[in-house]
Amino acid sequence: MKTRHKRLTFISLAVVALVAAVLLVMNAFRDNLVFFFSPTEVAAGKAPANGTFRMGGLVTAGSIQKGPAPLELRFTVTDLNTEMRVHYVGSLPDLFREGQGVVAEGRLGPDGQFQAKTILAKHDENYMPPEVAQALKKSGAAHPGPKP
């Protein structure tokens, strides 16, 4: 084999290996990518039907209900335009309460209810997750602000 052919073979194998590595990295990113949707977008069918995503808004006042199982909870999240029922089993963040911003990660159940795996809550009186603030702004509603 001539030197030129060896060099061409080596470059070809290097390009194939590089493309394979890039495809593996992109596949890993795609599997770990989680998008955010507001309750209005979820109700409009913009969220993936079988995939995991994040949904956020404000916890509706008077909507928190404890379930029959320990640590089971149902509540409603709203973007002040549309409400979406959430079912969650697990321990809640200390700052989770009615009227405050929350982001839930999970998927839609067969009954159309959001089945949350993780609940994220704000961390102080003035903070709201950026996704929630943007969804509220997009819906034309303003955040009512912290409660005294």
Structure write-up:
The protein is an alpha+beta fold. The chain is built from 3 helices and 7 strands. It is elongated and about 80 Å long. The model has no long low-confidence stretch (mean pLDDT 85).
Short description:
By secondary structure, the protein is of the alpha+beta class. The chain has 3 helices and 7 strands. The protein has a 5-stranded mixed beta barrel.
List the helices and strands and how they pair.
Blueprint: H1 3-32, E1 36-37, H2 39-43, E2 53-59, E3 65-66, E4 72-78, E5 83-89, E6 101-108, E7 114-121, H3 130-138
Parallel strand pairs: 1-2, 5-7
Antiparallel strand pairs: 2-4, 2-6, 3-4, 4-5, 6-7
Sum up the structure in keywords:
148 residues; 3 helices; 7 strands; single chain; five-stranded mixed barrel
